[in-house]
Amino acid sequence: MNHILQHFHKDEHPFIERVLEWKKEVEDRYAPKLTAFLDPREQYIVQSIVGNQGELSVYSEGIFQEAERKRVYIAPSYFVPTMEDYDISILKLSFPSKFVQLKHPDVLGALLSLGIDRKHFGDIRMNEEMIQFACTKEIALYVKTNLQKVGRVNVRIDEVENINELIPPQEDWKEQQLTVSSMRLDAVMSSCFNISRQKSQNLIRGGKVKVNFTLSEKTDFELQEGDMISCRGFGRFKINAIEGRTKKEKIRLSICRIDRK
């Protein structure tokens, strides 16, 4: 197993061990395994370990167009899941949008305050009039019954029956080339967001930065291809590729980023 672990960050090893257990479970029982919602990095790890070779395949679905968080099937070759097999419900929140504005953290906080783990919720989509979110079917009724407020705002919650009514993606990713002195988190952030190394370190130590959707407070954290970095107040970016070095031994990176609106 060591040859697998060496390709990933140390803090990802527990999840990798869980994926290996899922893989063995599917191989032993020859029956499909449906996960809870996984973030993009976790999906990448499942795909990397299980792949689509031999007797097993990996499928994923988040219902929303270009969904970020998805449920994943690890399945024997005979099983190809339908949309219904993923057991995902889409719920919508209606609220007096003319008088109040709700934000993503408000909604997520209200959902988690119900005592339900984040893994049961997929993407949260918002526009000026409505909020929609994905959840596992097993908790949908509980959420509909118990979620009555987001913050101090009364909300009405219903199920979205028509897939054509789903809120489309509104993020606009832009590709960019960077030259950095090292793959340290503070160095790459400094170059990407055009801020001083000191400021990037303060943001990291201040709990404002996540790497692969997990809080990171280590300024010298070594980034790799495929890593997703988000910084509160600045936006987020993903390292697409490490493209070699310049004549001055700087590292050339290809990234895609989206700035905070």
The percentage of residues in β strands lies in 25-35%
Fraction of helical residues: 25-40%
Task: Report low-confidence residues grouped into runs of 5 or more.
Answer: none
Order of helices and strands: HHEHEEEHEEHEEEEHHEEEEE
Alpha-carbon Rg, integer: 20 Å
The class by helix and strand makeup works out as alpha+beta
For the sheet with most strands, the description reads: 6 strands, antiparallel
Protein model, in words:
The chain is α+β, with helices and mostly antiparallel strands and 261 residues long. It has seven helices and 15 strands. The strands form four sheets. Strands 10-15-14-13-11-12 form a six-stranded antiparallel sheet. The termini are far apart.
What secondary-structure arrangement, pairings included, does this model have?
Blueprint: H1 2-5, H2 13-29, E1 33-38, H3 40-50, E2 56-61, E3 70-76, E4 88-94, H4 104-112, E5 121-126, E6 130-136, H5 137-146, E7 149-150, E8 153-154, E9 156-159, E10 174-180, H6 185-193, H7 197-205, E11 209-211, E12 214-215, E13 228-231, E14 235-245, E15 251-259
Antiparallel strand pairs: 1-3, 2-3, 4-6, 4-9, 5-6, 7-8, 10-15, 11-12, 11-13, 13-14, 14-15
Helix pairs in contact: 2-3, 6-7
